[in-house]
UniProtKB/TrEMBL annotation:
One of its GO terms (biological process) is dTDP biosynthetic process. This is Thymidylate kinase. Its EC number is 2.7.4.9. It is an enzyme of class 2 (transferase). One of its GO terms (molecular function) is dTMP kinase activity. The keyword Transmembrane helix does not apply. Keywords: ATP-binding, Kinase, Nucleotide biosynthesis, Nucleotide-binding, Transferase. Phosphorylation of dTMP to form dTDP in both de novo and salvage pathways of dTTP synthesis. Belongs to the thymidylate kinase family. NCBIfam families: PRK07933.1. Signal peptide: none annotated. It comes from Amycolatopsis antarctica.
Length: 218
């Protein structure tokens, strides 16, 4: 079985950039890598409903914490078979966002912390009920909130189809989400977490080596 590695962090933290650089470093180290990003816009009806709701579609759906959380979870449930197949045939399966994103954002929306009810609900739904594979390692890409916000705004202005949604535009929500992420990492929620400085240049060669030195346990 391969290692299931997840990159988490705020909108604009640079998760996609890190995933691409880490994939290159893993390949250079001789490892086979499969990568997925959530939500799977354009591939999953549940993800597309999420995107539409985040841009004021479907009435009051976007305002429902548990409704949105369920759509995120269903998107991952539908991808679970692909993830398991990739784990059976690759050294590393690298995910840009996963279950912890749902926990962090829904808790932040409800002004709860990592020990709040909705975090427990996400775990019960996605891990216990849907049976999603548990990560071996979760990387928390940490950047100051202001840096992440500036990056998200710049991305929205330069990339077609990347307009900021209601979550990305809510500064207070992003700040609360960062706090919940820190709490999840400190509690080793689901698996060990490793902080990554998203402002400094990341030594992806060293990071790839550390990931490959860690045995898959889930």
């Amino acid at each position: 079985m391969g290692r299931l590695v997840v990159i988490e962090g705020l909108d604009g933290a640079g998760k996609r950039t890190l995933a691409e650089a880490l994939t290159r470093a893993l390949h250079e180290a001789g490892a086979s890598v499969a990568a997925h990003a959530f939500p799977r816009y354009g591939r999953s009806v549940h993800a597309d409903l999420v995107r539409e709701a985040l841009h004021s579609g479907h009435g009051d759906l976007g305002g429902s914490v548990y409704g949105m959380g369920l759509l995120y979870a269903l998107d991952r449930r539908d991808a679970a078979g692909d993830i398991r197949a990739d784990l059976a045939s690759h050294d590393v399966v690298l995910l840009d966002r996963y279950v912890a994103s749902n926990a962090a954002y829904q808790a932040a929306r409800l002004h709860q912390d990592a020990e709040g009810e909705v975090v427990g609900w996400v775990r019960e739904l996605e891990i216990e009920r849907f049976g999603l594979p548990v990560p071996d390692t979760q990387l928390l890409l940490r950047v100051p909130f202001e840096v992440a916000a500036d990056r998200a705004l710049s991305r929205a202005g330069s990339e077609a189809g990347r307009e900021r949604d209601v979550f990305e535009s809510d500064d207070a929500l992003q700040r609360r989400c960062a706090a919940v992420y820190d709490q999840l990492a400190a509690a080793s929620w689901l698996s060990p977490w490793h902080p990554v400085d998203g402002v400094s240049t990341v030594d992806t060669t060293a990071l790839a080596g550390a990931l490959l030195a860690t045995p898959a346990v889930h």
